[in-house]
Write a structure and sequence with these properties.
The chain is mostly beta strands. The chain has two helices and 21 strands. The N and C termini lie far apart (about 160 Å).
Length: about 350
Amino acid sequence: MIKKINPAPKFGARVKTLSPYLLILFLVCLMIGFNYWSSSVKADNVSTSVDVGNSAPTIGEVSLNSKEVINLLEDSTVDIMASASITDNNGCLDVRDGGGVKAYVYQYSTYNASTSHDDNYMYDADIVSCSWQSTAGNTCNYECTASATANTGMYYYANPTSAAASANADQWVVTVVASDSYYAVATSHSFNDNDEAVIEVNLLLGLSAPDASASIPYGTLSADGESATIERGVRNSGNRSMNPLVAAAQDNALCVGYSGCAGGIITAMHQQYNLLTFSVDSGVSLSASPVTLDTVTLQRTSDVAGDASDDQIFWALYVPTAQTPGSYTGINSLTADPD
């Protein structure tokens, strides 16, 4: 039996059978090629830039002496403190390291922050010690202290502002000025938009007798004898003009054994005083009742001895007849009376 052999399929038929596969392969190759071309053409480095502008500092609430009244200390100085919260959006170090802060403490409406230093009315940045309390982030806490221990504090003769102390009764304020490294400046005060100040300096009446620890040595005198006049200074150690009040601490002004006056006694009237040199019986007799000497010892303008705020009182003693011999001591009282 002769086996029938089927003829081989024609070429066209084979191609027709493979064409779907070829199409898929072509599309895959096309996608691969497109992705390669796309990525190789669009890859690039793009530079970036920005200019960061300077932010001027701003000052939050400022405070003088923790908003407490200032009480001065006779013949001395006291600490006064100014503080402020300062913000700079470039960082607070831009103020601390690149700029700076100054504080000015002064009596409002009498002086201002541009006035030069004056111990009666104005304490400027040159005399205060300032420090940063914190420097984290954009806000810094800043504190200035005029220090008594460094003799840069507020002096005892700084102008009082209470109504009873002065006709010019406006209060004390602080102005804080901050600048950054670009010299941008911010200013803030310790009073509000109505110009109401916040701090008062209290009245301080004071008198001191600095000569030889305030002693009046009459020397050695015989009974029925009198001393020469002895000059002793008085000093205004407060913050307004005053007159000295003179008195014996007790009627028995000089005693042997003063604390109990157990021995001899020289009564107060045997001491005399005056504003000018004198001889006994032409002065004012001392008593235990205070007497005002009308000297008008002025408010000081400096701490230097010998200015118009210093006065002198002259003293003399008469020893009565038949006075018991002995070493006599006593105490005379000098106090300040407001002028």
